């Protein structure tokens, strides 16, 4: 049996040594805070950041560029995701066993969903269907949380059986999910509805970045230990093509338009841009650059809803860089809390990308 329903999960307060990319994070640079630059075109949009070094959650107003709220979150918060209706943001408590949910308006705490002893949830998706999906490294599994805002959400666990199930992607119909399992060096397909045994395939060295194309036709994975990216068949996990990326590509994100993917190359201080039609590396975008790669310690990357901007968490300097995709220029840097890592964006419905037929 690969899954089971938890009707009454045990509540546990656990202390874990969180998985680290290196032995320790680089010290933040002795830099003045970046200037607050306004952008009226981004009215109503907000950026949420988990600050894993101080166990807090930040909200940045993207119109003003100012951090407008910071609250206590949970132990070692990492990935986060905004609800489809924009009312809530969920946080994976990597140093514990729960998912914490906050109001996006004022970051007031709403509820906590326990996943069981030693869960260490990391990767997190609040799906368009309204359900939450999370990896649980400490249990070699992933979770499907059905109707998370209900008084008693349905909590289902699925074994991956692999070490370091870290990030995940979920199919549009919610029938399958895929995890990247860093220590095992595998990608795993989990069938959420049929409950068939999971399928795992070796994929480079330390695969960590993962994303599904908007049409669901391809799964892309980056392997940080071998500086590679792979296109996979989502059903069979057969490798269709591979290419070299920049150094240490620990995240991969696909543009909402579905035309390109980017990897966050920590050791280069920049991004690799992959043309998804040709499967070739089309260009690189410098954010901090190799001279500042260790100083800025660039980690998570996400796209704006319209695909015009990229946001990169610079954990070492407690900042987030806003990058213009077309020019590659760093437009602004936002001050956040200590070791800012996970990122999520709230954008009004009017700013979301529409299908233009391209």
Automatic annotation (TrEMBL):
PROSITE patterns: PROKAR_LIPOPROTEIN. Keywords: Signal. It holds the Pfam family YNCE. Residues 1-29 form the signal peptide. This is Beta-propeller fold lactonase family protein. PANTHER family: DIHYDRO-HEME D1 DEHYDROGENASE, PROTEIN NIRF. InterPro entries: Host-pathogen_enzymatic-act, N2O_reductase_N, WD40/YVTN_repeat-like_dom_sf, YNCE-like_beta-prop. The keyword Manganese does not apply. Residues 42-346 form the YNCE-like beta-propeller domain.
């Amino acid at each position: 049996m690969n899954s089971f329903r938890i009707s009454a999960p045990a509540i546990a307060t656990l202390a874990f040594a969180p998985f680290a990319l290196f032995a320790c994070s680089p010290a933040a640079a002795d830099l003045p805070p970046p200037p607050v630059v306004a952008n009226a075109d981004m009215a109503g949009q907000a950026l949420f950041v988990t600050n894993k070094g101080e166990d807090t959650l930040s909200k940045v107003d993207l119109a003003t560029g100012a951090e407008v709220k910071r609250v206590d979150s949970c132990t070692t918060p990492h990935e986060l995701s905004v609800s489809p209706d924009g009312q809530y943001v969920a946080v994976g408590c990597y140093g514990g066993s729960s998912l914490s949910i906050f109001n996006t308006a004022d970051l007031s705490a709403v509820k906590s969903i326990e996943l069981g002893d030693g869960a260490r949830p990391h990767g997190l998706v609040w799906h368009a269907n309204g359900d939450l999906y999370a990896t649980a490294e400490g249990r070699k599994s992933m979770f499907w949380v059905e109707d998370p805002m209900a008084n008693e959400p349905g909590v289902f666990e699925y074994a991956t059986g692999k070490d370091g199930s870290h990030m995940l992607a979920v199919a549009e119909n919610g029938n399958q999910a895929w995890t990247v399992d860093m220590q095992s060096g595998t990608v795993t397909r989990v069938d959420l509805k049929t409950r068939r045994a999971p399928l795992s395939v070796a994929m480079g060295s330390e695969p960590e970045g993962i994303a599904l194309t908007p049409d669901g036709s391809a799964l892309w994975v980056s392997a940080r230990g071998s500086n590679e990216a792979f296109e996979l068949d989502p059903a069979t996990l057969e490798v269709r093509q591979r290419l070299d990326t920049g150094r240490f590509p620990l995240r991969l994100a696909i543009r909402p338009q579905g035309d390109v993917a980017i990897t966050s190359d920590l050791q280069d201080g920049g991004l690799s841009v992959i043309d998804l039609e040709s499967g070739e590396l089309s260009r690189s975008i410098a954010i901090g650059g190799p001279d500042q790669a260790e100083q800025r310690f660039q980690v998570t990357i996400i796209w704006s809803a319209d695909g015009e901007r990229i946001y990169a968490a610079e954990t070492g300097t407690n900042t987030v860089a806003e990058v213009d995709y077309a020019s590659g220029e760093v437009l602004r840097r936002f001050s956040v809390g200590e070791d800012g890592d996970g990122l999520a964006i709230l954008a009004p419905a009017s700013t979301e990308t529409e299908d233009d037929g391209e």
